[in-house]
Amino acid sequence: MSAAPGGTRQIGRHAVRAELARVAFDRFCLTGFNQVTFADLAEAAGVSRSTFLRYFGTKEDVVLFVFDPLGDAIADALDADRANEDDWSRLRNALESAATFLVRDVQHLATILDLVDQTPALCARLREKQSEWRPKIVARLQETASPADRSPVIAHVRAAAALECLWIALGQWSASGGQEDLGDLLDAAFAAFSTPARAQTDAPL
Amino acid sequence: MSAAPGGTRQIGRHAVRAELARVAFDRFCLTGFNQVTFADLAEAAGVSRSTFLRYFGTKEDVVLFVFDPLGDAIADALDADRANEDDWSRLRNALESAATFLVRDVQHLATILDLVDQTPALCARLREKQSEWRPKIVARLQETASPADRSPVIAHVRAAAALECLWIALGQWSASGGQEDLGDLLDAAFAAFSTPARAQTDAPL
DNA sequence: CATAACCTGATACTCAGTGTCATTCATGAC
DNA sequence: GTCATGAATGACACTGAGTATCAGGTTATG
A28-54 pLDDT, tens per residue? Predict the structure, then answer.
């Protein structure tokens, strides 16, 4: 009658992982990411260095693993909004719902984002994760594209640009301490594509 | 009557750097980036490990230092085209002239780009360099923006999106072995912003 | 209970990157 | 030409990330 055969191990593993990450995160915020070693983390968490390393392949993952489900979340949201014919609004909506799913603990997320952009290594690794999501997004975009619009380049660019919007919006959001509305920030970011890109509106129509 | 007092050292240093990079690059292509150690590179180049490391802070820089001038090149090109009122075309032109400056040795650049996207560490580091160029680009865009358009978010998004276009276009270009015209590829990428983002053209006008 | 799978801690290892120090060599001043 | 300064070099030692292996203990399962 156990939840799943052998599943208890998974549950336990997940819980340990979360606890290790919690302890480690405090250290990172206190001392700075680069100043903390795996030996420090292991000691703080009360496990051996070996064990700690078995839960997180790299130091970056200790912080960034929380972003892992985001790729699938975005893809799922795109699937759910397949009817939407406008790529930009579809992307915007998908990003918002995925991000909202991420913003459970406002304070915690803001702290993470602060730490991330104080730390080049974390920025780099997060960007890397982002680019791993892109192929999935591109595939969704192409599924519903009209035959004439099938240029893979277009889909790639839109996916990449949308992810940049998310990242920039999250940066603003974190800078505001989580006060501003993420949907508004996304709108402001996506406006870069719809607003006429001109210094002076020389064609008032 | 020497070029500059003490300047010979700089010249010499630059030349050595280029030679070390050349030797190292051959090794990387032959054996794979991750398989080659600094000790290998030093031996192949006939210098000590210490010396090699003094010329390149990281293994990634041995390959990617050629991209360093690109940030300034883009910024300069934006300055030169200050009259252009359309952000997108201004960015497109700046990227093309900067990239053309980069495409001196077609074969070499194509080989570099191949190596880069076979190697996650190189991708990550190159993306990092890219994001270092962004602030300079954003500043240029905002200088000439109309007061109403001063939202820093807009400029950030456009700069980021444009850089993604460059990267994607270079990927296509390298995949074609340097055959396709980079200007055409950039046009195709930037079309993602001007083409109506709709599955079916429901407004044929 | 027995066994197989898993978790843990210990240990040893490779390699990136930093820092120090003594030697050597080129440059520039006298 | 000689000498002093500063840079380049190589040797060495060190920290820390990440990988791999192994023995002993624990937990699920039949």
Answer: 999 999 999 999 999 999 999 999 999
Q: Are residues A24 and A81 in the same domain?
A: no
A194 in contact with nucleic chain D (CB within 7 A)? no
CB A19 within 8 A of CB A45: yes
User: Residue B109 sits in which domain range?
Assistant: 64-193
Residue A24's alpha-carbon distances to A6, A19, A106, in angstroms, are 28, 9, 19
What type of residue sits at position B136? Answer: K
Q: Is residue A91 in some structural domain?
A: yes
Domain match, A78 and A98 both: yes
Residues A52 and A110 in one domain: no
In this prediction, residue B197 carries a pLDDT of 63
B29, B32, B37, B40: CA torsion to nearest 10: -50
Contact residues on chain B for A167, CB-CB shorter than 8 A: 160
pLDDT digits (tens, 9 = 90+) for B155-203: 999 999 999 999 999 999 999 999 999 999 999 999 999 877 655 444 4
pTM: 0.91
* B136 and B115 within one domain: yes
Is B124 in Cβ contact with A124 (below 8 Å)? yes
Is the alpha carbon torsion for A21, A27, A33, A38 positive or negative?
negative
Measured CA to C1', the nucleotide nearest A13 is C7
Q: Are B198 and A85 in contact (CB under 8 A)?
A: yes
Neighbours of B52 (CB within 10 A): 22
How many Å separate Cα A23 from the centre of its chain?
22
Q: Is the CB of A53 under 7 A from strand D?
A: yes
